[in-house]
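Raw record, unedited: DUF5723 domain-containing protein
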Amino acid sequence: MSKYIIFPYVGLFLPLFSNASTLSTNFFSHSHSNIAPIKQIIDDDWLEPPSPDADIGFSQSLLEVKLDYNGYSLSSLNRLDYFLTANYDTALAYYQNSRDIPLNSHKPYSISLNFHEQKSRGIAFGYAIDRQAWQASFQLSYWDVVKFRNSNLNGSITGNNTNEILGELTLDENYTHKNFLKRPNERSWNTSGYGYSANIAFEYIASDTFTLSLKASDLFNRFKYKMIGNTQAEINTKGSFVDNEGFSSFRPLLSGIESERSFSKALPISLNFGAKYTASNIDYLFDFYRRANTSFYLVGAQYRAKHATIGIKYDIQNQVPELSLSTEWLNLLIALDTLDFKSAYNIKLGLNLNLHF
């Protein structure tokens, strides 16, 4: 039976079913966007307009140090989660404004934006069961959230030839540190939160040649924040004035409430369903993979040599090749839709180091 199980969120190839003691370090990161290249979003330097189907971007990363012993496991965890949902109008308006292009090519721009940022550290306890025809494991995690922001911006805007933005927007934002209107924290709100999550994995060996697997991360999760910063505001350009040179201009009007409130939120569930057919030393693979409410379909194969397994998969919809290498003590994974890192819309990286004793 397989010694390793691919656990799509906790890490890459975690040795949950080994009878020996294992100390492992695991890193896994998956970033995807159909709005703009990932690095351009991070650097806030968009070089090209968004595609017409632009609506989502996410980046999830996790670092784990884990000890396994007789089926039990204890882990120290750090995770970073970003989620961005928007519509084409919002992405186009942001791109044009960042490149100093007047917002007069598309009227009006319907704005709809949700941004979620969360940085957490935690501990986890797990247990695995190994039977002849099936294997199962679960992991329970407790999280200390050290940074959080959830922003919602909605409304309608237009522009003129002098690059002024006109319209009305509503903002609803919860935060522990950074916020849209740069409100300072004068010790008036809390800057942390807490949460819990549960991961499960199941593998069924139907025959000597056919295996099915199911993994779910953040299957049950909830993060809670007590009296963190909150801003609810309306922004409009109903106010106008005449500047010193006699030109009519617009001054945005801002009204709303800055306060503190308690807030809770669940993260999207990540799922991975896999099927494997074995013929000689080659495994033929199919994966259905869902993360941040986005689906991925992968097909591929892996060759099992004496001391290593080399694999390749292909993301059918996003046209992304995925390469992997697995040995007893080292596992690597990389997936890129282009060799030009600055232009990549899909980036997946995995590293696992094992020490058996």
